[in-house]
Amino acid sequence: MGDVINFPDLDNLLIEIERTEAFIQTAKELSAFLKDLPLNNVENDKLVELMIKHVKEAEQGAFLQGFSMGHEFSEYQGNEGDL
Question: How many alpha carbons fall within 13 Å on the CB side of residue 42?
Fold first, then answer.
């Protein structure tokens, strides 16, 4: 399979995702928009739950893609640029 990265303590491995100012601003805009929608509490909660799930999936996919690209670039550099 190739190179293996041995993490010292998998039980305490944590990758923190930092939010940008643009992310925070768009979250505030979205929140303000949601307040004006004619949703009851159950519908509102379900919509927010689905949006959070969507964002988490997008973050995980982006992280995995970035990690994969970094690994591929590392291999490319290790082969002195040979493809």
Answer: 0
Q: Is this model's pTM higher than 0.70 or not?
A: no
- Distance between CA atoms of residues 55 and 37, nearest Å: 21
d(CA 76, CA 58): 27
23-36 pLDDT tens trace: 999 999 999 999 99
Contact 48, 33 (CB under 8 A): no
Please, what's the b/e burial string for 13-49 (b: 16 or more CB within 10 A of its CB; e: otherwise)? eeeeeeeeeeeeeeeeeeeeeeeeeeeeeeeeeeeee
Main-chain dihedrals φ then ψ at residue 39, nearest 5 degrees: -110, 145
